[in-house]
Design a protein that fits this description.
Helix 2 crosses helix 6, helix 2 runs antiparallel to helix 7 and helix 6 packs antiparallel against helix 7. This protein is 33% helix and 23% strand. It has a six-stranded antiparallel sheet with strand order 5-6-3-2-8-7. It has a four-stranded mixed sheet with strand order 1-4-11-12. A two-stranded antiparallel sheet has the order 9-10. The protein is of the alpha+beta class. It is globular. It has one domain.
Length: 268
């Protein structure tokens, strides 16, 4: 199960549209997204004398939104974490929605295939675990580069660059380790049309940001399996059940956060 924290308004939108938005990685609250991972990768490429290869130059930070685009949506393996209630769920007045990870993956494949006229699809949204250990991350990247360098394929650097690009998306400083993040990732190359519908919205920092709507259902099937009501959320389980039923979302476990009743209300 993977969880998405949100405020009450976003909760209503997600259960009605069955969508979670994946946003341009350069428009999020963490200014080091992609860069922190790529900086470590770059050190390894320099160590091995590969940094100036054209394929690796094309995945550097300054090529984001020029040579390629990355859109991500954030989920967590932990659905009732105090730090996340405060940061991502309206200061604990929101909710946490639990999705079946396998169903999101399968439904995305089905929806992409259907939208493409039942023709083979090139790619789909990837659900990937974020790494917080620098040593572990560097070890995996080094091992991967070493294996690829042993290949005799004429396009080995092109293939290596594609994987390293995704590696860079999946590293965050250990400061964020409590988030236990699972990322939904879309990788887009403007030179190749992969059929992703991209819209523009204004983010919390008043910037225009590209985003993609990840559909978490297929026909009448929904990947929503659990809803956790935030510590200071005004909704009751009955309220949530009524909203879910109205949207045709069934068989969902609903419960209060274990932090309920632990917060003092501020007098107004």
């Amino acid at each position: 199960m993977i969880y998405h924290y949100c405020n009450a308004t976003a909760f209503k939108g997600i259960i009605s549209t069955k969508e979670v938005w994946l946003t341009d990685i350069t428009k999020l609250n963490d200014l080091t997204e992609y860069k922190s991972g790529f900086d470590l990768i770059l050190e390894l490429l320099q160590e091995k004398g590969l940094a100036e290869k054209p394929d690796f130059l094309n995945i550097q930070v300054d090529k984001l939104n020029e040579k390629f685009q990355i859109l991500i949506g954030c989920f967590s393996l932990e659905g009732d974490a105090g730090s996340q209630w405060g940061l991502y769920a309206d200061d604990s007045k929101g909710l946490s929605i639990g999705f079946d990870e396998n169903e999101i993956d399968q439904f995305n494949l089905f929806n992409r295939f259907t939208a493409n006229g039942y023709q083979p699809i090139i790619s789909h949204v990837k659900l990937c675990k974020v790494h917080y250990s620098k040593d572990e991350f560097v070890g995996k990247v080094r091992s991967f580069i070493d294996r690829m360098e042993q290949s005799e394929s004429p396009i080995k650097h092109q293939l290596t660059a594609l994987v390293l690009r995704r590696f860079a998306v999946l590293y965050k400083d250990q400061y964020f380790k409590d988030e236990r993040e699972i990322r939904a990732v879309v990788e887009i190359e403007p030179s190749r049309d992969e059929g992703y519908a991209i819209d523009i919205r204004v983010n919390a920092y008043k910037e225009e940001a590209r985003f993609h709507k990840l559909l978490t259902s297929y026909q009448n099937l929904s990947a929503i399996k659990e809803v956790i009501i935030g510590p200071n959320c005004s909704y009751s389980p009955e309220d949530v059940q009524s909203m879910l039923t109205e949207q045709g979302v069934e068989k969902v476990e609903i419960r209060y956060s274990s932090g309920r009743g632990r917060y003092r209300n501020v007098s107004t």
